[in-house]
Design goal:
The protein is an alpha/beta fold. It folds into 2 domains: about 270 residues, 3-Layer(aba) Sandwich (Aspartate Aminotransferase, domain 2), CATH 3.40.640; about 100 residues, Alpha-Beta Complex (Aspartate Aminotransferase, domain 1). It is built from 17 helices and 13 strands. Strands 1-9-8-7-6-2-3 form a 7-stranded mixed beta sheet, sandwiched between helices. The chain has a 4-stranded antiparallel beta sheet with strand order 10-11-13-12, with helices on one face.
Length: about 425
Amino acid sequence: MNTQAEELNKEIMKANPAVMEMLSDKGKNIFFPKKGIVAQGIEAKDSKINASIGIALEEDGSPMRLKSIASNVNLDPKDIFPYAPSFGKPELREAWKKLIYKKNSLLKGKEISLPIVTNALTHGLSMSGYLFAESGDKIIVPEPFWGNYKLIFINGYGAELKTFPLFDNSSFNIKGFEKALSEEGKKKIVLLNFPNNPAGYTPKENEIKQIVDAIKKSAESGNNVIVLIDDAYFGLVFEDGIFKESIFCLLTDIHENVLAVKLDGATKEDYVWGFRTGFITYGIKGSKEAQKGLYTALENKTSGAVRGSISNAPHISQSLVLKAFKAQTYWDEKKEKYDILKRRYTKVKEVLEEHKEYEDVFEALPFNSGYFMCIRLKNNDSEKIRKILLDKYSAGVISMGDLIRVAFSATPTEKIPELFDNIYNACKER
């Protein structure tokens, strides 16, 4: 094992031995190289003559660039063309941390790590898999779940997905979750995604408390619990009584054996899907001194994993997102887009309420947030119905087993009644 990895592991052991047990073999062995090319380049950045960095510069010392590219972006060339740090753009990391606190009042007074920038949520999930999951590990996840979890954790790291039904009637299936947590094995990896993709469900406030209590109980019994929190659709909650903050807030200080890993980003929160700008943030109970050492070590390991996979997330995306955060109109713009999505959500609810005949051929799963809702077909094959919708009605949906996922986020409000009427008619044809 590299001596730099050993140093980080000693820091983690000193701060919280349970976290050391949570790490995969790759997680234990990874580090950010303090003496490598990147570190040496940082040391030389203010030199009069800097022949260390692996980019090309113009004669005036600015980043070398093509006018045909530079002319299309209204940013300083230094915020576009050079590599960003593997940790992420420092100012962006600080800004995102402040935004996490601003959006989550329940975090007040709690210490969390400084976010590491990832190449959006998928890469963030993969980096969490790198650090904590390996062959034979079971990841507890409600079903239905985002299909890409299979590629990330099963194909990528050899882990297994231990599923339980998301719903018990119309509520979160707390008994199923508790049963999954109670199975044999000291190391528990839990993956929670609220609002859920594909169901579009966020637990009610009392349900969130039950989830947190179950995790705490598991930790108190001696288990080490890593909770991966996929907050891709954070903030898009459309009903009262639904938990509107991230469950991360409630998990950061419940037990020394519970490591909360918040995976989020600008992708959906700020409608920049192609920017690929995400973050990993850690939270765990402990003294401020222990947290400081632990978070620093985890940040170094995470940035080492980023360095070893993609080197760094795109600089231009980070700069554009940061610029948006500084705009005076930022929050008003976000409210405007939220209102559009809520109108579409409300229209779906109205259509389903007005057309009880739809219940003859499909039923809607509970939904209250996010981009999606799902319907479960009665006596029909979802893939056949999807094909009929595509070929006969020019309507696109996603088939998932006996479910059809509807992205109301991508459907103009006025077309929502037509879409559901099409689904009904396609089902009646069969």
